[in-house]
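Q: How would the structure tokens look for this protein?
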Amino acid sequence: MDWLEYGYWGLFLAAFLSGTIIPLSSEAVLIGLLIAGIDPIWSLVIATIGNWIGGMTTFWIGQLGNLEWIEKYFRVKHEKLMEWEHQVEKYGAYFAVFGWIPIFGNVIVLSLGFFHARLIPSAWWLLVGKTARYAIIIWVMN
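A: Here is the predicted structure in token form.
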């Protein structure tokens, strides 16, 4: 396995983990790899897929509906989750487009799952938002 192959796997893992509640900067990994010469198109695809799968994992955790578990292990306060209930009811799956925002976006996605927003539209808008974020980073770097 050469360095670039490892770079793609590292990018996927960083993007996946940062798409979950785990605080990690996939943007820093992406920028570092772009500076090192990794292909920007493949970087966009791999980072987006990894981050989207991480986000969908967070959505699924929210769907488990165990408020106590979400509060304890993901350190999301009960009051904060309840605040999002109104937003989810108002905007539904469209709100998922903001799932790319660091920390705040994870709460959005977790709330969408917890309050059982529609899966397919939520997944689509989450993908759109995450793709746009990485595309902008890559565009700025080139």
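The helical segments are 3-19, 26-35, 40-63, 67-74, 78-91, 104-114, 119-141.

The chain has seven helices and no strands.

Upvote if useful.
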